[in-house]
Specification:
Layout: E1 9-14, H1 22-26, E2 31-36, E3 41-45, E4 60-65, H2 68-71, H3 74-79, H4 84-92, H5 103-137, H6 141-144, H7 148-151, H8 158-165, H9 167-183, H10 197-201, H11 216-241, H12 247-267, H13 275-302, H14 316-338, H15 354-381, H16 404-446, H17 455-468, H18 475-490, H19 492-497, H20 501-508, H21 512-546, H22 548-561, H23 577-592, E5 596-602, H24 605-615, H25 618-621, E6 624-629, H26 633-640, H27 647-656, E7 661-665, E8 691-693, H28 722-734
Parallel strand pairs: 1-4, 1-5, 5-6, 6-7, 7-8
Antiparallel strand pairs: 2-3, 3-4
Helix pairs in contact: 4-5, 4-15, 5-8, 5-9, 5-11, 5-14, 5-15, 8-13, 9-11, 11-12, 11-13, 12-13, 14-15, 15-16, 15-18, 15-21, 16-17, 16-18, 16-21, 20-21, 21-22, 23-24
Length: 736
């Protein structure tokens, strides 16, 4: 099934994000898989039922459908929403500036920040199980009333009760680990070879063997993050039961803090070069994690005389505040290092601030998840009463008191969201006239003579072109970054000293009664709005489980976020390109051994194609050409990922192909664009022949044989244009 005829020329189509079915890619109703499997496979029209849509005479058409790697399994796609903060932290390092002198420092800062996300996740579960349930609710009869699932916990002493409920954070930690491991099973069997020694010297080059290895680094980081999570649980548990005295408790607490510190230190070290060395280093860490956790649980289970005093679990609020403070410091350092002087001519987004922006977004989303979990459980245990510092507690009900830090985290996240939305709206309004003038010039050039009947159609085209250039307006990201950083940092000091929004306003206001009440309502409203957003994500996850259409929409996020190997957070969804790139390279090599191959890549598929061609050996590349259409390679990726897909990388790609490369683009396309503009870094004459602009629509007037004017194609399709078939034929003829 997977063999090709000797001497056959193949047009291999690679789709973009949310690419749909093989039938859509081939534009043919009857297809058959010729290689691969249900997760990612290669398809052709069934023999004897006609050619694919847009096929060039004498050239066979084949499609590579990889979209099921992210959208194929309902459980995998739905559960990935829970891993959103981890995915954002893993993506942040890829947005770093192209300066290689600080790449190791960038990696260390991002990995430390990712370690705080794991600790924050464990602390949020601790806040529900150990703090709210075991410490603040169970000791009160009113909180246990009519709740048989909690009443039996009241018969246990405080120490054994805390030890028993400590199993829940451990299970939660294992679950997020299992989600990524379960999702990675679709990628098995396509592990890249062991990295070449060159990979240690230039790990950020896409042409280095081993770049797409998504197993060695996550295996190293996974055990470290488990140690950090388990150490966070051990320290929280021991702080709650051994605060007054106890030498053994203090020793174990110091060991738990040391385990966290050891994990942080290991995050700063380079990843060992082989999996054997990874296992050799991590084996003692794993044994220490298991042993210390078992001793901590045993110590708590045997503890007697622990008094559940009113208020929060001892040390818990301080731990949450200290964690948020550490995240704020790391974000500031990351921003300062990013804004340091770089090489001139950098086109990275906002002078390279994309990395701290996305890192701050990961912290904000993690804080929203944690605040929603803690506040909604507290609200449930309070039987609908709002937990807060100024609301009187009903008689006999536990005075549940979530940490002050979560109030600030919810307000900071809401403020950042509102300001970012407002800034984006303002940017659209301000840039509207500029985009309109540019669109008017394009329309005037393409359609100089317009009949009165087509005048309204021309306005539609002008508006479409103006809207398509919204992609180039990235100003709101800068505002978002400063809001996320400034609002978050302004609350660090209040987190550490335990002052909430209402207490702060009461101290600063001349009329504390009115302003405190208003602040309480605003704060509660902010918490509820953040909660509704998180609940909306959960509903979307449920819809992804039930609806294939929603699943494809959600998977489009993972197509963009999980393209890169995991080098920062091991619990992020696995890198689908770790299978797609080696598999595509293997298929192209097999086809090139028998004939010519024209790789036709649409949208994000052009990024996969570029990464694949950079991995091909020279003898294979000589029989390969590249056709991209609707490609964001230069318009977006060279600006977002200058360390990996710079303009020089694209020049190198063209040189390796001997400039057998054509790129089709439209002014109405909001994603795709030119590959090489007039300021390109390439000196080769072949770069000037790569880009081919398509007028869209082809005409404003209605064809005499039609009833409606030609459609606006925008981002899809391209293969229906005659220019597409001409480009395929020319590229095939240029292959030796």
């Amino acid at each position: 099934m997977g063999t090709a005829a000797e001497g056959e020329t193949v047009e291999l189509r690679v789709h973009g994000v949310s690419g749909g079915t093989a039938e859509k890619i081939l534009d043919h109703p009857i297809v058959v898989r010729v290689a691969g499997d249900r997760h990612a496979g290669f398809y052709r029209p069934r023999p004897g039922v006609g050619a694919a849509g847009g096929a060039t005479a004498g050239i066979a058409v084949e499609a590579y459908r990889w979209g099921a790697l992210t959208a194929g399994a309902a459980v995998r796609t739905a559960s990935m929403l829970l891993l959103l903060p981890f995915m954002l932290s893993n993506l942040a390092i890829r947005l770093r500036p192209a300066s290689t002198g600080r790449s190791r420092l960038f990696r260390v800062l991002c990995r430390l920040l990712a370690g705080t996300l794991t600790a924050a996740f464990v602390l949020s579960v601790i806040g529900v199980t150990l703090d709210l349930v075991a410490w603040q609710c169970v000791p009160y009869d009113g909180c246990r009333a009519d709740r048989p699932y909690l009443s039996w916990l009241g018969d246990l002493p405080a120490g054994p009760r805390l030890a028993l409920l400590s199993l829940v954070p451990l299970v939660a930690l294992r679950v997020v680990w299992g989600i990524g491991a379960r999702s990675a099973r679709a990628l098995e069997g396509f592990r890249p070879p062991q990295p070449h020694p060159e990979a240690a010297r230039a790990p950020d080059r896409l042409d280095v063997s081993g770049f797409w290895d998504d197993e060695r680094t996550p295996a190293w980081l996974r055990q470290i993050h488990v140690a950090i999570g388990a150490g966070t649980l051990d320290a929280s548990l021991l702080a709650g039961i051994s605060a007054p005295d106890g030498v053994a408790g203090r020793v174990l607490f110091a060991a738990a803090v040391g385990l966290i510190g050891c994990g942080a230190a290991l995050l700063c070290l380079p990843v060992p070069a082989t999996r054997r060395r990874v296992r050799r280093v991590l084996r003692p860490l794993s044994a220490a994690t298991i042993g210390l956790t078992a001793l901590s649980l045993g110590y708590a289970a045997l503890a007697r005389g622990v008094q559940s005093l009113p208020g929060q679990l001892p040390g818990y609020e301080g731990a949450v505040g200290a964690l948020l403070g550490a995240q704020g410091v790391l974000l500031v350092v990351l921003a300062l290092v990013t804004m340091a002087p770089r090489a001139p001519g950098s086109r990275s987004v906002l002078a390279g601030l994309g990395m701290p922006v996305v890192a701050a977004a990961s912290v904000t989303v993690a804080g929203a998840f944690a605040a929603t979990l803690v506040f909604r459980v507290a609200d449930f245990l309070d039987r609908g009463s709002l937990p807060g510092p100024i609301w009187p507690d009903p008689p006999g009900v536990a005075p549940l008191d979530p940490p002050v830090a979560y109030w600030w985290a919810a307000l900071a996240g809401l403020s950042a969201l509102l300001i970012a939305t407002g800034a984006a709206s303002l940017t659209l309004v301000i840039s509207r006239r500029r985009r309109g003038r540019r669109a008017a010039r394009i329309v005037e050039r393409d359609y100089p003579d317009v009949t009165p009947r087509a005048a309204s159609r021309r306005e539609v085209v002008r508006e479409t072109i103006a809207r398509s250039h919204v992609t180039d307006e990235l100003g709101p990201i800068l505002v978002t970054f400063f809001v996320m950083s400034s609002v978050g940092l302004a609350t660090i000091a209040f987190d550490l000293i335990g002052i909430g929004p209402t207490q702060l306003v009461a101290r600063l206001s001349r009329d504390p009664a009115q302003t405190t009440l208003l602040t309480a309502y605003v704060t509660d409203g902010g918490v509820w709005l953040i909660s509704l957003l998180v609940i909306g994500l959960m509903i979307l996850a449920f819809r992804s489980y039930r609806s294939a259409e929603t699943r494809r929409t959600v998977a489009a996020l993972w197509d963009l976020g999980d393209f890169w190997p995991r080098t920062v957070h091991p619990f992020a969804p696995p890198c689908y390109a770790a299978r797609a790139v080696p598999e595509l390279a293997e298929r192209v090599s097999a086809l090139a051994a028998r004939g010519k191959v024209v790789v036709s890549a649409h949208s994000h598929g052009s990024v996969l194609a570029a990464a694949t061609i950079l991995q091909l050996p020279p003898d294979v590349r000589r029989r390969v050409a590249l056709l991209t259409h609707g490609s964001p390679l230069s318009r977006l990726y060279t600006r977002l990922y200058p360390a990996y897909l710079s303009a020089q990388t694209l020049c190198d790609l063209g040189d390796r192909l001997d400039w057998r490369w054509r790129n089709l683009w439209r002014d109405t396309d909001p994603v795709g664009g030119l590959i090489f503009d007039h300021s390109a870094a390439c000196d080769a004459s072949g770069a000037r022949s790569v880009d081919l602009r398509l007028r869209d629509p082809s005409s404003l007037d209605i064809d005499p044989m039609d009833t409606v004017p030609p459609p606006l194609e925008r981002h899809w399709p391209y293969h229906t244009q005659e220019t597409y078939q001409i480009a395929v034929r020319q590229l095939a003829d240029r292959i030796g």
